[in-house]
Design a protein that fits this description.
28% helix; 12 strands; 26% strand; 224 residues; two-stranded antiparallel sheet; six-stranded antiparallel sheet; alpha+beta
């Protein structure tokens, strides 16, 4: 009897801890979404399921010369067949433009720094060869709609980073909207002149990436 009582207490404590963790995650998710205007994040789930993972790169940071970054939320969810089919129909109706994950001619949004100033001395050639090639492609794709570079956002169990976009094979990127312009306070703007074409110096991109075979969905918003 004592063993049963102890086991019940352990289960209850674990359940309470799990519920608290879920509430904390839900609160963090809501706070992250509130960073942006409602119109930019209205395609995101209202709340997180237990199989959901999300990442954000938000908040004010120290300005660094020659450095570019974006403000981003990405939310991953795996759905049942019925749920996925419903989402697929909705996404198809909202999509302005689609790209396959392994398209090598995408206009990608990523952190970039090729110069570094230390004690008034300028160090150049700091970016990786891969990032430099991506920048060259970006300047040739100003007619495309920008999409995120997804690499290193999620764990290897969901995401391999094997394609040019950073997603695994099988994902289709659906851009709901992307516009050039200023959508952040001035103090949060970073210089993108070294990695993005003039037309897309500042702006936003929002949409959904779908993997039909795995029934995976990634919601994104990127503002820069």
């Amino acid at each position: 009897m004592r063993y049963c009582i102890v086991m019940i207490l352990v289960i209850c404590l674990y359940s309470c801890k799990s519920n608290t963790g879920q509430r904390n995650l839900e609160n963090k998710y809501s706070q992250s979404l509130s960073f942006f205007a409602d119109t930019l994040v209205r395609h995101f789930p209202k709340s997180l399921g237990r199989a959901t993972f999300f990442t954000d790169v938000l908040g004010k940071a120290d300005k660094i010369k020659y450095y570019f970054r974006t403000f981003t939320i990405e939310c991953y969810q795996k759905y049942s067949v019925q749920e996925y089919d419903r989402i697929q129909i909705l996404v198809d109706s909202l999509s302005k433009k689609t790209y396959v994950a392994n398209d090598s001619m995408l206009l990608l949004l990523f952190t970039y720094q090729d110069k570094l100033e230390v004690d008034n001395y300028l160090f150049t050639d700091q970016a990786s060869p891969e990032k430099k090639r991506m920048v060259m492609t970006n300047f040739e794709q100003d007619s495309c709609l920008p999409v995120p570079f997804f690499r290193d956002k999620f764990s290897d169990t969901m995401y391999t980073g094997s394609t040019y976009s950073g997603l695994k094979e099988g994902f289709i990127l659906h851009v709901f909207d992307a516009q050039p312009g200023i959508f952040l306070p001035k103090e949060l703007l970073y210089d993108s002149s070294e990695c993005l074409p003039e037309k897309w110096r500042h702006g936003f991109s929002r949409g959904v990436a779908l993997n039909e075979k795995e029934r995976e969905v990634i919601f994104w918003i990127v503002v820069w």
